[in-house]
Write a structure and sequence with these properties.
alpha/beta, Purple Acid Phosphatase, chain A, domain 2, eight-stranded mixed sheet, globular
């Protein structure tokens, strides 16, 4: 099972394949030893993608998501940033960026060693925004890829895990990290992204022996006991 350690502070640290990571309340991971910040599933320009199909959403998701990333970069001052796939919602997202958002991304990629990991929504790295593309990225004992396989040392995204937590009168829904100590699936950092319940069978296919769930509330991360988790009601098509 995963190790969650208190290291002389109120922060929760996750141990994956012997490496210590700090999960943040926004849904990112900080790897102090490698001075590396990991974000996943930004889905930039999702709002404009929906607008092109007639579903008018407020066109502010990219700016809001970039603000989260900028906040994290200011906080941790990383040497390296890994964007773990589906950084852009589709192949045309880069072309739809506003000049201001394009400039903000270039500033971020120029300030660090920036890696765009290939996702299913964005199989090619952006052409004119800086950074470098990678299908899979290996660093020490860890492997960073978009779609989880359960490989030892793997940090992945794609599934957008969320925890539905029993509360007084109603259940709360929170972004979540899910890990068994060998591998970890990150939540989405994107503003408009939904999520898959951590009790869904897709999670069981990754974590065969069970896993621990850590919910992020925007400012902190907490271990959630299994008995407090609630499933979603899915309708079979």
């Amino acid at each position: 099972m995963s190790l969650a350690l208190k290291a002389g502070s109120p922060d929760t640290f996750l141990c994956v394949a012997g490496e210590m990571f700090l999960p943040t309340g926004q849904g990112a991971l900080w790897w102090e030893r490698e001075r590396t910040l990991v974000v996943s599933d930004l889905h930039l320009e999702k709002g404009s993608s929906y607008a092109r199909r007639g579903q008018l959403l407020p066109p502010y998701d990219t700016g809001a998501t970039l603000s989260l990333v900028e906040q994290l970069v200011r906080q941790f001052q990383p040497d390296r940033v890994i964007s773990l796939g589906d950084s852009f919602h589709d192949r045309r997202s880069e072309a739809r960026l506003s000049p201001d958002d394009r400039s903000r991304i270039r500033t971020l990629t120029a300030a660090t060693q920036w890696h765009w990991v290939e996702g299913n929504h964005d199989p090619d790295p952006p052409a004119d925004l800086g950074g470098q593309g990678a299908k899979v990225l290996h660093l020490g004992a860890c492997v960073f890829r978009h779609e989880p396989t359960g490989e030892v040392g793997e940090i992945a995204g794609h599934l957008h895990p969320v925890a539905k937590i029993a509360g007084r009168g109603r259940a709360l829904r929170r972004k979540a990290f899910i890990t068994d100590g060998s591998s970890l699936v990150m939540p989405s950092l994107g503003t408009f992204t939904g999520g898959l319940n951590v009790l869904h069978q897709a999670m069981d296919e990754i974590f065969h022996q069970g896993a621990m769930v850590f919910a992020a509330n925007g400012t902190s991360v907490s271990l959630i006991e299994r008995r407090a988790l609630r499933p979603d009601k899915y309708i079979n098509a």
